[in-house]
Records
---
Amino acid sequence: MTARRTVAVVAPYYPPKVGGAEHYAARIAGALAAAPDFTPVVVTTRLKGLRTTVSVEDGVQIVRLGAWVRVSNTPLSPLWPFQLRYWLRRTGAELVNAHAPVPGLGDLAVVCAGRRPTVFTYHAGSMHKGEPGSGLADRLIALYERHLLPRVFRRADRLVAVSPTSLAAGHPHAVEISPGVDTGRFTPGEPPVRRRQTVSYVGRMDRTSAWKGIDVLVRAFVELTDLPGLRLRLVGGGDALPDHLALADRLGVADRVDAVGELTGDALVEEVRSAGVVVLPARTEAESFGMALAEAMACGTPVVGSDVGGIPYLVVDGESGLLAPPGDPAGLAAVCRRVLTDGPLADRLGGAGRRRVVERYGWDSVLGRYLSLFRSL
């Protein structure tokens, strides 16, 4: 009988919190649980509360640590170095897979691993916000990315870059393993030419994630209101959602904007496969992949993404989707108009997007590479 070895997956956030990095970490934990030679344990943070909780979800033990304070989107606690060492020892972890870019827990896990092999997965390019009022946050991010993060990179045994724009890419001990899509679950709906006229954004809407550019999408939508029956659907939640709805009201389009809320499971799949076009209007290279676009492509849904970060590596402009200049409402509106008014183009992009995801981004292949990496260590 093959001995089972325990791998600690350490991530600052984990489901039920919604996000691409959270989903990625959960997929790795699930693959470890299904493998005959591994046992996963997840160490993450609580969204509220200070006391540590331990639970078992979908066959995976999950340890949630309390956070004393949150700086922007970053939870922190002075107890984590002690707690990480304790839980790594108590669970018998023999390998650590830490996730970032949210600073703190993942970096500490690499430092606290001791002699255990470590794999550090980095999910973003620079997190520099460049937004009004973000001066202090940007200065702290610059210090972290310039001085602390390189030390963590050097200390890890292996780095995983989720795309060529990840800050981990290009290091001698780095490999590229992109996120994946469940192509058996995200499947095509009706041809795009027969779908309702909607422009959809799917993802979180937090003030700390202003680089997602949802305000750009709202401004672009104003220029599309001459299209009969067209609606903007905001799928997801977060503290910035009221800001976007207020902007829509000021611009006179609130009656054509639907705040759908957070969707999971079959409801999310149905929403994506019935959309006219799914848009990710990111402003910066912090968007290193674009999971919402990949899932939409798997559904045969035409996609529009910003020409920034990792999106151009996922979306081939004019072939599997369209790219728009980042931060440019007029440019984004023009690109969306092409998809919404040209049925054959929408159908062609949807079909090509599905083929690209099936060929390159199926979860089985992605997770197989992770398990091979863990075994090699």
---
Amino acid sequence: MTQVPAIQLSDGTSIPQIGFGTWRIPDSKVTGVVLAALEAGYRHIDTAAIYGNERGVGRAIAASGIPRDELYITTKLWNDAHLTADARRGIENSLMRLGLDRLDLYLIHWPATLQYGDSYIEAWDALQQFKAEGLTRSIGVSNFLPHHLDALSGETPAVDQIEVHPTFSQRALRDELTRRGITIQSYSPLGSGADLRNRELARIAARNSKSVSQVIIRWHLQHGLVVLPKSQTPIRVRENFDVLDFELDAHAMSRIDALDGDNRVGWHPDTARL
């Protein structure tokens, strides 16, 4: 099996640089899709309580026969569970649905300040306790901006999962997270499909005899990002994983970097009502 590169996190653990995202894959379908991803070689699976598919992901983990220590499982605490007692129920319910006794990475899904004020600060304190108890090896956040991070105390998040893709590369935020020692995970790494239609990316893909999605994923890897592609189509699942046998040259990387614009496809962390 192809060896996926790993990135060392600030807490001393390591994370596979390619993960499989499961957003919007219903529980009724996710077991088969995750099994296909595991068969293709993925060992890093990303889910969340709000996705409603943790049980199906757990079924795939159990059916795969892959030893637990060879898997990297991430899930996320939803916005209405930031208070300490709710957060504990959140992680315990996620572990139960996944059929696991520990996670590899647990994230606060959103700061959600419009609905819940600064309750994410209490959630962060709870996550640090969960890590101390061994319920998760690493802890982090998702969709956090620098002013959210500034409000946290104690341990620095190991990871911030943010929207990143060629037409919305968030370079200033990435630079700031890197300065803080926080590893960046890219969600919507293909721009929810929008970047696949970019003509410049199509030209670069043709010159490398690769698909556009493979070129985009390779761009993420070469920027040192943890990338979380998602597909429900087995051939696309395999294709998105098959990116370790080529490199983009500096010219191609700079051309992709130049595509950056204001093409956010998700919600802004400060204005999202979730």
---
Amino acid sequence: MNDVIELLGSPLKAAIDRRTILLGMCAVGLLSGAASGMPAPKLSSRIFSTVRHTTHYLEIGPAGGPLMIFLHGWPELGLIWRAQMDAFAADGWRCVAPDMRGYGGSSIPEAIDAYTYEHIIQDMAELHDHLGGKPAIWVGHDWGSVIASSLVAHQPARSRGAVLISVPYFPDANALPTIVPLVDRTIYPADQYPDGQWDYYRYYTKHFKSAVADLDADKAASLASIFRKGDPASVGKPSPNAMVTRKGGRFGSAHRAPPTRPDADLWPSADFDALVQAFNAHGFRGPCAWYMNDDANIAYARMAPSGGRILQPVLYVNGDLDAINTIKGNHSGDPMRAACADLVVTSLVGAHWLPLERKAELIQVIRAWLGQKALRPVAA
């Protein structure tokens, strides 16, 4: 029997482009600690390259500390983890946050099929080896959660445990054939919303160039419009992401994001500037290509030993106001519950962007879980 502890509701292209982005980050104080007159975490910016891939990553904490590796999702950078990295580095962890394939200072392949789980997990395995290869705590948000859970399932020796945020583990891959059957049809009647909240995902697969062009039309406004706080009034109602196809795109007939001011409570202004700079350099094509490889990802998922069952401790952090991914009151979390032998599920009152929207609370629940599972660093 699985040891599942439900705690819902508790607080528990090129090298020159990479160089330009990193210089820009330094210019706005991201890596120098000179942002807004306040001392910033002393993040170090590093590059690791192999013959197949280059990864830019941020690092903080004692060099001899146990590894905690943070994987971001769409459309983010390693910088989304600034608050968590600073906190856990102070606890004695060696914290590392890469820019994932297609993002920031890392490689941005042109081919759509370069963005499969298998390629991305190989990136992370090579980075892990470069960092010493000792079993790590893998922390993932959004697509980063997908990669963290898949990596632990395929290569369990690399992990002491995993923290999955906002997107649960799907042993058969986070892919339309897996997730659409789990849609809550009380909110999304099949005749009106055949793909439920995943309509936006389907739109990528059918209109990829148009979807990317709409996001690229005004990259700063697109990013500002995406990163918004949760709205309690949205709970139990269809998400706007369920209506992308009928609108003809995320932004409808305008085909560009409306002018939108970034929410300073989420991204620190200097970090948001760096995010915009990275997307201005490379655009949304690479990040959106992650949605385009369902068949390959399902085939790879089915290669995991023991049917993808995870034996290491897993913490899942749900966003109660996340209209797309919440597992509260529906069946979206069922595959994860069945596949994880030692699972703790907790919840925060926030939407999808919990590493930004609930910075301190997320740190608290991860710390509590690490203590519960005796995973604290010796120095803590």
